[in-house]
C-alpha cells in the first residue's frame, strides 16, 4: 500500500510536461495557462489623455475667466497645440490631449455668462494620464505560465491579443459502474441508490477547468464494464476515470480490465482514509484512475490525485498544502492510515466537519478543504490543509 506522498511523486513523474499549446479566441481562454510572452504593441496609454471631466487649458493659464472654444469628446483627435491663454476647451474622461497641456477639474470651475467659465484655481497636469506611463512599447506585460483570469483577459483585449497561445484543456472520459445505481431523476427501488458520482465528477472537472468528453453509467458486470471502457478508450481523452470497481470484490473489474488493455498499474491501494482502493495506471502517455465507489472517497481521491495531474497537464504546479490553526475542541478519530478529513477552512483556522463513513455525502456541501491527520497522533495545533475550492 503506497503512501499519499509517494504516489504524488509517481504521478508527477508520469506528467513531466503540460499538454500541447494552441491558439484560441480570447473568449475561450478564461482560466487557461498562457504559453507565450505578451508584449505591449505600443506605449500604454498610447497618447496623453484626460483622467477627469473638465477643461483643457494652456499650461500657464492662471485662475480667472476664460472663453470656451468647443469640446474634445473621447475618441476624437487631440488638437496639435493646447488652447491659448484666456481660452479653454471642454474635455471628458478619456479625451486625447496635446503635448504640454494642463487641465482643471469641472468641480474647480464656476459657470459664467457669454460662453465663459471661471477657473477657481490654476490648472495642472496631475489628472493627465501620460503616454507610456503604464508601459512602453515592447515591454513584457504577461509572462508564460500566467493564469488568464478576468483581469489578464481584459489586458489582452486592450492590447489586441485576441488569439493568445495557451495550454490545451485536459480532456476526460468518465465511466460509472454499479448495478445499484439509478439516475438522479428516478425513484430508487429498495436496495438501489441514486447516482451522485456522475454529477460530482462533472462538477469537479468543471472547477478544475477540464473538459468532460464522455460520461456513461453501466452495470458492474465485467462484460458491460469492458465494453464501456473500450468506448472510453476510443475517445481523445487524456484521462480515463472509472468510478467503482476499484477494490477486490467479485464485481471489481477496473484493475484487471485496464491491465488487459495494456495499462501499467502503478497503484491499487493507497494509505489514505477515505480512499484506500485507488488505482493509478498509464499507457502510452494516457492516464487512467479507478476511483472507489463511495462519494466521499471520490471527493478525496479527486483532490489528492486527479486534480494534481490536471494541474500539471495545464502547466501549473499542484496546489500546495498550507498550514492552519486547528480550531479549538476539534475531535479527530485516529486511524493507522493518514486521514484526509473534510474540513471548513477560514482565514484563521480549520474546523474538521463531522462524517460517519466514506459514503457520507452530507459533509461535502460545507467542505472547502481536506485536513491532513497523520496516522501518529500529535498534540500540535498547527496542521496541514489542502484547499478544495
Notable characteristics:
29% strand; six-stranded mixed sheet; 6 helices; Molybdenum Cofactor Biosythetic Enzyme, Chain A; Molybdopterin biosynthesis moeA protein, domain 3; alpha+beta
Question: What does the model show?
Answer:
This protein is an alpha+beta fold. It has four domains: 4-17 and 169-314, 3-Layer(aba) Sandwich (Molybdenum Cofactor Biosythetic Enzyme, Chain A); 21-43 and 134-167, Alpha-Beta Complex (Molybdopterin biosynthesis moea protein, domain 2); 49-129, Molybdopterin biosynthesis moea protein, domain 3 (Molybdopterin biosynthesis moeA protein, domain 3); 322-387, Beta-clip, CATH 2.40.340. 19% of the residues lie in helices and 29% in strands. The mean pLDDT is 94.
Cα-atom Rg, whole angstroms?
A: 30 Å
CATH topology of the largest domain: Molybdenum Cofactor Biosythetic Enzyme, Chain A
- What is the CATH homologous superfamily assignment of the largest domain? MoaB/Mog-like domain
Can you count the beta strands? 26
Strand content range:
25-35%
The averaged pLDDT comes out at 94
Number of discrete domains: 4
Alpha plus pi helix count: 6
Amino acid at each position: 500500500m503506497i503512501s499519499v506522498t509517494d504516489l504524488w511523486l509517481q504521478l508527477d513523474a508520469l506528467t513531466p510536461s503540460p499538454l500541447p499549446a494552441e491558439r484560441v479566441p480570447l473568449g475561450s481562454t478564461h482560466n487557461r495557462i498562457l504559453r507565450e510572452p505578451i508584449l505591449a504593441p505600443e506605449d500604454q496609454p498610447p497618447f496623453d489623455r484626460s483622467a477627469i471631466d473638465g477643461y483643457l487649458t494652456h499650461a500657464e493659464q492662471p485662475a480667472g475667466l476664460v472663453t470656451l472654444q468647443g469640446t474634445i469628446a473621447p475618441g476624437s483627435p487631440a488638437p496639435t497645440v493646447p488652447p491659448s491663454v484666456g481660452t479653454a476647451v471642454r474635455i471628458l474622461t478619456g479625451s486625447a490631449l496635446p503635448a504640454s497641456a494642463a487641465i482643471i477639474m469641472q468641480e474647480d470651475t464656476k459657470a459664467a455668462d457669454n460662453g465663459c467659465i471661471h477657473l477657481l484655481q490654476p490648472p495642472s497636469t496631475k489628472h493627465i494620464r501620460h503616454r507610456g506611463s503604464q508601459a512602453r512599447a515592447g515591454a513584457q506585460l504577461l509572462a508564460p505560465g500566467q493564469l488568464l483570469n478576468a483581469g489578464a483577459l481584459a489586458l489582452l483585449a486592450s492590447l489586441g491579443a485576441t488569439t493568445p497561445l495557451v495550454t490545451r484543456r485536459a480532456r476526460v472520459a468518465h465511466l460509472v459502474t454499479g448495478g445499484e445505481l439509478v439516475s438522479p431523476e428516478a425513484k430508487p427501488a429498495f436496495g438501489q441508490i441514486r447516482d451522485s458520482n456522475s454529477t460530482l465528477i462533472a462538477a469537479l472537472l468543471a472547477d478544475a477547468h477540464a473538459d468532460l468528453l464522455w460520461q456513461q453509467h453501466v452495470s458492474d458486470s465485467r462484460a458491460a464494464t469492458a465494453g464501456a471502457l473500450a468506448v472510453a478508450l476510443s475517445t481523445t481523452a487524456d484521462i480515463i476515470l472509472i468510478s467503482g470497481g476499484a477494490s477486490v470484490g467479485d464485481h471489481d473489474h477496473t484493475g484487471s480490465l485496464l491491465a488487459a488493455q495494456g495499462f501499467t498499474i502503478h497503484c491499487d491501494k493507497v494509505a489514505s482514509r477515505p480512499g484506500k482502493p485507488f488505482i493509478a495506471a498509464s499507457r502510452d502517455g494516457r492516464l487512467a484512475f479507478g476511483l472507489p465507489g463511495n462519494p466521499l472517497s471520490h471527493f478525496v481521491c479527486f483532490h489528492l490525485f486527479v486534480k494534481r495531474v490536471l494541474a500539471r497537464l495545464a502547466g501549473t504546479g499542484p496546489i500546495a498544502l498550507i498550514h492552519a490553526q486547528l480550531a479549538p475542541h476539534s475531535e479527530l478519530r485516529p486511524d493507522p492510515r493518514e486521514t484526509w478529513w473534510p474540513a471548513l477552512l477560514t482565514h484563521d483556522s480549520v474546523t474538521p466537519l463531522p462524517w460517519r463513513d466514506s459514503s457520507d455525502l452530507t459533509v461535502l456541501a460545507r467542505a472547502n478543504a481536506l485536513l491532513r491527520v497523520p496516522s501518529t497522533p500529535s498534540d500540535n495545533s498547527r496542521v496541514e490543509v489542502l484547499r478544495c475550492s
